[in-house]
Sequence to fold (268 residues):
Amino acid sequence: MIIAGILSPLENVLTEVLTWLHESAGLTWAWSIVALTVMVRMLLVPVAVRQIHSMQSLQLHAPEMKAIQQRYKADRQRQSEELMKFYKENKINPYASCLPIVFQIPIFISLFYVLKDFEKEIFPKFPSSSLEWIGLVDITEPTKNGWGPVLIAVYVASQLTSTYLMSTSMQSQAQRIMIMVLPIVFLPFILRFPSGLMIYWLTTNLWTTGQGIVTRRLMPKPAVPPKRSSRTPAKDEATPAESVTEPEGRSKPPGVPRRVKKRGGRKR
Fold:
C-alpha cells in the first residue's frame, strides 16, 4: 500500500524502539508498547501546552466571538472573515487543539503495520519472549478475542473522559455529542485492531486524562490582551468634551460656570 510505503521509515523507528525497550529495559512486548506511548506523549508535551493555551484563549474570548457570530449570522462568509480577523488581532490559533491528534495519526498507523507482521518478522528473533499483557490479551491478536472487550470498555471510558476534559466552551452541544459518540462509532473497526494497538490508544487516553487534570489545576490561564477588536468599541474611550463659549467668543474649560453680566444701570 502507498501509505505503508510512505510510513516505512517511521515503522522502522518504532520497531527499533520496541526492540530496544524489550532487550535493554527488560520489558515485555506489551509493556514496551506502554513505554513507547509514554515516550511519544513526552515528545508532544510542547504541542500539548500550545493546545491548552489555545483552548484557554478560546474560552476567555468566547463572549466576543459569540457576539461576532450573532452579528453576522445572516452572512456566513462575512462571519468567517470577521472571526479570522479577530483570531489574528488576539493571537489565537483555533487549529492548535488538533495538533496532538495530527502528530499521533502517523504513529498510530505505523504501529498498526508493525503489529500486523510482528509475529512473523520480529517475534521469531526472541523465542523466549511473551506476547501477552498481564496474562489477559495477546498483542498480535484482534481486540475482540479473549479479554480484549475489557480493553475496549476501558478505552471507551477513557476516551469520553479525555474528550470532556479537553473540550471548550466554544463547542456547540451538537459538536460535543458528536465527539462523545465517535468512540462508539469506531467500535466495529476497533474490534479488528491488534490488542497491542488498543494498549497504545488506551495509554494515550489515560495520559490525556491525567494531563487535562494536572493542567487545569496548575497551569495559569493567560491574561486577556489589552488590545480589543476593532469591531468592539473600547469602554475607556472618552467622549470629547464640548467647549463652552463665552459671550466674548473665548473658549471656557468644561466644568467652570459661565459668568453672566447683569444688564441695566444702577438705580439712583
About this structure: The longest strand covers residues 132-133. Strands lie at 132-133, 137-138, 244-245, 251-252. The first helix runs from residue 2 to 6. Residues 2-218 form one domain.
